[in-house]
Amino acid sequence: MSRAGLLESRVGRAVSGPSYRELLLDATSRHGGAGLGNEIPQAALLRKLTSWFESLPDSSIKPSPDRRADLIAMHRGRAVAVEIKTYSRDLPSRSLIAEWRREADLVSSRALFERVEEFVGRVREVDVTARTFTAILGGRFADPSDEVVGTFDRRLVGDLAFDQLRPGSTFTLVTGYQIHLDTQGNAESSSLATRVIMHRARPRSRGRRAAAARQASDLLED
Amino acid sequence: MPERYRVPPAAEQLEIAVLGRGMGESILCHIGDSKWVIIDSFRSSRGVPIASEYLQQLDGDHEVVAVVVSHWDDDHIHGMGALVEQWMPNQVWLPTILRDQELVAFAVEHDEAMAGVAPSGLKEFLHVMQVTKGQGIRRWGSQGHSIATTTPAVMTLLSPTHEFIDEALTVLGINHAPGEREVTSVRSNRTSIVLWVQMGGATALLGADLEATSAGWSTVVGAHDVSRPSAGVMKVPHHGSGDADDQRVWDIMVDSRAFNVATRYTRLKEPLPRPDDVKRLLDRTGGLFVVGELSKRLRTESTAYDLHLDAASTDGIRALGQVGVVRLRHGPEMEWRCETFGAVEVVVGCGVGSDTAPISG
User: Fold this and answer.
1) What is the pTM of this model?
2) Which of A43, B62, B77, B195 could be cross-linked to B124 through a Cys-Cys bond (beta carbons 3.0 to 4.6 Å apart)?
3) Domain of B36?
4) d(Cα B300, Cα B344) in Å, to the nearest integer?
5) Domain count across chain B
6) Minimal Cα–Cα distance from B97 to chain A, Å?
7) For A73-86, how does the pLDDT look when each residue is reduced to its tens digit (9 = 90+)?
């Protein structure tokens, strides 16, 4: 794939086809819901995306069959563009990194995190022995029938957060493209990464509690 | 759908239809004269309460006289508000434990705090409360209450038991700030409304998600009138999970040749019923239907039941997606007859033979 084609597909043009979420759900369901966000679905996604690319009429964005391809799915509003990462020489330019930095949701000194997609998760089971937790993932306001179940390694949340996980704990899972930078701001490497942000309760005001009590009383009147 | 799917029960027949889709359970009872009682709800892939779809696909006109919310878990309550709005039954039964102002206030606050975070059984519960407000149709149910049927059918609540009601709020797990985490209702299974259905010579035990605790099945079995005929249909409680299993229920309340139906629950690392659950249930019963979202791990046969498993079942799978339906009918001159549609597995234990012949017409 040409550099220009790559940028075009990545930055500006809306590419019709299944959304990243649809692909992820599809790949996940094919693997029995296990390991979402980890290696198996990524491999499945790659196969799915490759198949999708091959079905597109625009041959300029087809990956070369002899290339060792990785995938990155980019989210731009409602448009989903897809990029195939191949060799280090194809890493993003400084100007592109600057653009990403402006747009990035999560930025650290050494890494950019390009948010691709997010899911709200609800923990169902915590397996202390296996150090894994099982959660239901669904989009905001999702229909329950559109949810998937995934089992995650504790490393996704870290030891401290893992110890605090309980059935019912809620979190936002963000998958995205993480770009590691050198001290000059050049990209050293990139990878598909997943992060979990645990939810915390908002403080309740006395007024809010009283209002809820009144509403409850009203609802119970029959 | 296959033609036979649309055939309604005869006026004098009792029907128990168990519908599931892997994360949803809904049961319809025809109690005679085209009158129905619906227990629990989930939505179809078209977003419609599955029970409404089922009734609309049957020929003829139908009336829903009562709706039962067995408990507020996601997989039992979704679409219930819409279901009540559509059919406006004259009775909407809820576990009496939910009639607590503090609990409802928690639900209100929690719903606001979790807005947009997750679909919630509590939200649906509030929806039911809103659509029934001022209608005079709410019934707060517990052990000993009966659903008014106006037909020969008798439907009696076996739970929640009075023993449980006393300790309910402290064990419901609602002991954190609204919005801190999802109310998973892990313990709400204990609030479940269990129903005993009897019409003519037919009986059915609909076990909801009631667990085998001292104030759960143990109390239900202890209070059971042993002079009653044992159930010819058993909706296996809590998706066949071991935490709902009480040997005495099978010994005392359920016929050894009963049709046993469990709905699948896929929102766990290992979906219910697990292989050891199936094995245990087969030891108890000899045969089991598992409804919703087919699993490749269970052995599927159709020899132990009187089934109409024919080519039409394939059509059913296409039309129903992951939804499965086990439909059982019983009439004055007909023993239980069973049909399956869509995603239903018939699991038969090894060694099942003529000595465990099915109840069939």
Assistant:
1) 0.74
2) B77
3) 3-348
4) 9
5) 1
6) 13
7) 333 222 223 333 32
Q: Flag whether B353 is in a domain.
A: no
Whether residue A145 lies within 8 A of chain B, CB to CB, comes out as yes
The token pair at B310 is 């024919």
- Most A CBs within 10 Å, among B50, B84, B117, to test the A interface: B117
Provide the shortest C-alpha distance from residue B118 to chain A (in Å): 6
The residues near B224 (Cβ < 8 Å, ≥ 6 apart) are B158, B252, B253
Q: How does pLDDT run across A107-133, given as a tens digit for each residue?
A: 333 455 555 566 778 888 899 998 888
Looking up tokens 């989210």 gives A75
Residue B57 inside a domain? The answer is yes
Distance CA(B231)–CA(A129), nearest Å, equals: 41
Q: Give the CATH number of the domain where residue B182 resides.
A: 3.60.15.10
* Length in residues, chain A: 222
Q: How buried is residue A76: exposed, middle or buried, by Cβ count under 10 Å (0-12/13-18/19+)? A: middle
Residue B355 located in a structural domain: no
Tokens 């005993």 sit at which residue? B196
Answer whether A215 sits within 8 Å of B105, measured CB to CB: yes
Looking at this predicted complex, what is its ipTM? 0.82
Q: What is the CA radius of gyration of chain A?
A: 20
Range of weakest confidence among A166-180, B55-69, B117-131, B236-250: A166-180
Torsion sign over Cα B15, B274, A33, A55:
negative
SS3 B140: strand
Q: Do A168 and B101 touch (CB under 8 A)?
A: no
Pairing between β-strand B254-263 and β-strand B231-235 as defined by DSSP bridges: parallel
Kindly report whether the peptide bond that precedes residue B160 is cis, defined as omega within 30 degrees of 0. yes
CA distance A82 to A68: 16
Helix-, strand-, coil-residue percentages of chain A, each rounded to 5: 35, 30, 30
| Cα separation, A169 vs B179, whole angstroms | 10
Strands (E), chain A: 70-76, 79-85, 106-107, 111-127, 132-138, 148-153, 170-181, 187-198
**Best mutation site among B176, B269, B274 for testing chain A: the one with the most A CBs within 10 Å?**
B269
- CA–CA min distance A125, chain B (Å): 7
DSSP secondary structure of A110-168: SEEEEEEEEEEEEEEEEETTTTEEEEEEE-TT--GGG-EEEEEEGGGT-HHHHHH--TT
Does the distance separating the beta carbons of A142 and B267 come in below 8 Å? no
Q: How far is B295 from chain A (nearest CA, A)?
A: 10
Beta-ladder partners of A197: A172
CA B25 vs CA B21, B75, B90, B261, B289: distances in Å = 7, 6, 22, 11, 14
B178: nearest CB among A136, A144, A204: A204
Residues B316 and B292: beta-carbon distance below 8 Å: no
